[in-house]
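Operator note (shift B, R.M.): manual run for RRM domain-containing protein requested after the automated queue skipped it. Running by hand, logging everything below so the morning shift can see what happened. Input copied straight from the record, untouched. If output looks odd, do not overwrite the archive copy; leave it for review.
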Amino acid sequence: MFASYVDKARSLFVARLPWFTSPEILRQYFSKYGIITRASIVYDRDTGRSRRYGFVEFRSRSSLQQALTEQPHVIDGTEALVKEVLTQPSEPAQKSGLADEEKQI
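Run finished. Output pasted below as returned.
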């Protein structure tokens, strides 16, 4: 899962995305702020549908800071909630097998 090995110092949490937003769209959108090392969307493992949030990891902290400064972010016609990743999921949730799947590029 992306959140289990994310570099928190260089990563964004992106929520309120349209259900059809892909990791490629996240990568394209945020690449204007700098080099993206990873982009992913979280999908429900039972339905395969987007959970409407994802993560973007930049190569540099300065790119992340620029993306945070320049808000709002409208992605696929919807204003997204963009925040810095501050914490990782708890260990029990990861081990339970209930974690959602992610597709990344």
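Quick read of the result: The radius of gyration is 13 Å. The first strand starts at residue 11 and ends at 15.
Leaving this for review. - R.M.
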